[in-house]
């Protein structure tokens, strides 16, 4: 196993593709014990099971065995365990308290899909418990949380994959988009626009009794203690089976207390690809300007003045000065996706299409055979989980590492701070602090509620 620890990034990603093709992996615990057992599958646990929690679990059963689940809602825990049994023939052990999962020696890695305000606490404690981590995006609720996670990854040597799956999946069209740029097909980049959709506000949402089976205090966790709120109308489609208007399941993304709205939801995907394409994954912006925005409730000093309605932005246009003074526009208008504009042309990419003259010209002037692999660093993995598990085997960081993710997410966090305060922010990407604005810098961190501090 010592030779695998010396794999460079290309070789490790080649191992990813081979592993994904064969379904053969080595669990991290067996690596740490010095064993070489090619038939041993890693043992996973999922913490936070609703919607994306099941999605990442479902696609990972091909590569890993799930021994434990944790969720503060007994109804969700039971329903997802039924799904797992139907698919694999075996249920996982269920827990309300994720710490019981972390105390188990047989768990190699945890997959975290709890709401954003829980990500850092669970991630840090999982790494300190000796687990590798796959955590959904956006990774953090604040910029300082990102710095803490980086510190613990470095301290523990754990493998950490962030769930920005556009780097691996979606038919690799985002990788092809970056390959077009790196091969000069649009010349010098002059502007990038990320369309990430707007949102809607809500009616006044009354405080009501907590649904049976939900531990509301533990769902809130590090966030402030507030009443459970919901209206009777139910959500349909993806995220269905819960109230359409609530401060809990699914709709929590519309509250700054638990998330960052669309800026940190779709923004964490598209700003990630834009930052990668600009070669800015180890630095950051210099200025963030809120050109226009709408908030669904009144704000004072950066905080909403009411607590019974959604409070994240509904519409916005943010101008970001990226390295080389290349403008990055984050907007709620237009198509969801990324428009790259250069001196020689432009093209648009999202999860459904890759269009524009430079794309059409590929028919007569294709990219080099290895262009996409050059972007990825080697053969592209079957999916995000395959990349994570191969990284566990190689004891290397995966394609969506915490450092590049945090640098990108800083742009989204800063955009939200600029909206909340209604002013331009100047950012020092080296010191990772806002220049000359004490009030704005106070938004780089939050204090966890007493009793839910991170265990260190």
TrEMBL record:
Which InterPro entries does this chain map to?
A: Gfo/Idh/MocA-like_OxRdtase_N, Gfo/Idh/MocA_oxidrdct_glycsds, Gfo/Idh/MocA_OxRdtase_bact_C, NAD(P)-bd_dom_sf, TAT_signal, TAT_signal_bac_arc
Top EC category: hydrolase
Gene Ontology molecular function terms on file: alpha-N-acetylgalactosaminidase activity; nucleotide binding
Matches recorded under SUPFAM superfamilies = Glyceraldehyde-3-phosphate dehydrogenase-like, C-terminal domain (SSF55347), NAD(P)-binding Rossmann-fold domains (SSF51735)
Write the record's keywords in alphabetical order, separated by commas.
Glycosidase, Hydrolase
Q: Where is the Gfo/Idh/MocA-like oxidoreductase bacterial type C-terminal domain?
A: 203-288, 376-453
Annotated Pfam families: GFO_IDH_MocA, GFO_IDH_MocA_C2
In Swiss-Prot or TrEMBL terms, this protein is called Alpha-N-acetylgalactosaminidase
Q: Which residue ranges does the record assign to the Gfo/Idh/MocA-like oxidoreductase N-terminal domain?
A: 85-163
Task: Output the PANTHER family linked to this UniProt entry.
Answer: BCDNA.GH03377, OXIDOREDUCTASE FAMILY PROTEIN
Could you name the domain of life of the organism this protein comes from?
Answer: Bacteria
Give the enzyme's EC designation: 3.2.1.49
């Amino acid at each position: 196993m010592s030779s695998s620890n010396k794999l460079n990034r290309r070789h490790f990603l080649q191992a990813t593709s081979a592993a994904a093709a064969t379904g053969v992996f080595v669990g991290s615990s067996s690596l740490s014990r010095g064993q070489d057992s090619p038939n041993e599958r890693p043992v996973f646990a999922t913490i936070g099971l609703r919607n994306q929690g099941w999605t990442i679990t479902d696609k990972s059963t091909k590569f890993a065995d799930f021994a434990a689940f944790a969720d503060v809602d007994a109804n969700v825990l039971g329903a997802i365990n039924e799904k797992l049994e139907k698919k694999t023939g075996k249920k996982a052990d269920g827990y309300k308290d994720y710490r019981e999962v972390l105390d188990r020696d047989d768990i190699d890695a945890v997959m975290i899909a709890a709401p954003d305000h829980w990500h850092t606490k669970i991630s840090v404690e999982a790494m300190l418990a000796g687990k590798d981590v796959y955590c959904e995006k956006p990774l953090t609720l604040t910029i300082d949380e990102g710095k803490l996670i980086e510190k613990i990854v470095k301290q523990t040597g754990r493998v950490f994959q962030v769930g920005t799956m556009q780097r691996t999946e979606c038919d690799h069209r985002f990788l092809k988009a970056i390959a077009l740029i790196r091969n000069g097909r649009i010349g010098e980049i002059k502007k990038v626009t990320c369309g990430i959709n707007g949102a809607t506000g809500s009616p006044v949402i009354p405080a009501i009794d907590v649904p049976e089976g939900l531990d509301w205090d533990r769902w809130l966790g590090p966030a402030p203690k507030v009443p459970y709120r919901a209206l009777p109308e139910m959500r349909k489609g993806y995220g269905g089976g819960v109230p359409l208007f609530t401060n809990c399941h699914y709709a929590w993304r519309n509250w700054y207390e638990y998330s960052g709205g669309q800026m940190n939801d779709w923004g964490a995907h598209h700003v990630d690809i834009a930052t990668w394409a600009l070669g800015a994954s180890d630095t950051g912006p210099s200025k963030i300007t809120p050109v226009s925005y709408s908030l669904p409730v009144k704000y004072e000093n950066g905080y909403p003045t009411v607590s019974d309605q959604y409070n994240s932005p509904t519409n916005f246009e943010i101008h970001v000065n990226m390295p080389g003074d290349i403008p990055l526009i984050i907007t709620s208008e237009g198509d969801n996706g990324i428009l790259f504009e250069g001196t020689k042309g432009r093209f648009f990419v999202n999860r459904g299409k890759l269009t524009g003259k430079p794309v059409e010209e590929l028919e007569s002037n294709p990219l080099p055979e290895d262009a996409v692999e050059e972007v990825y660093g080697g053969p592209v993995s079957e999916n995000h989980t395959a990349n994570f598990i191969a990284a566990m085997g190689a004891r290397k960081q995966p394609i969506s590492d915490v450092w590049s993710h945090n640098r990108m997410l800083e742009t989204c966090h800063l955009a939200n701070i600029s909206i909340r305060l209604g002013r331009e922010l100047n950012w020092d990407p080296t010191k990772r602090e806002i220049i000359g604005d004490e009030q704005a810098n106070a938004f780089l961190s939050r204090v966890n509620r007493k009793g839910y501090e991170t265990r260190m």
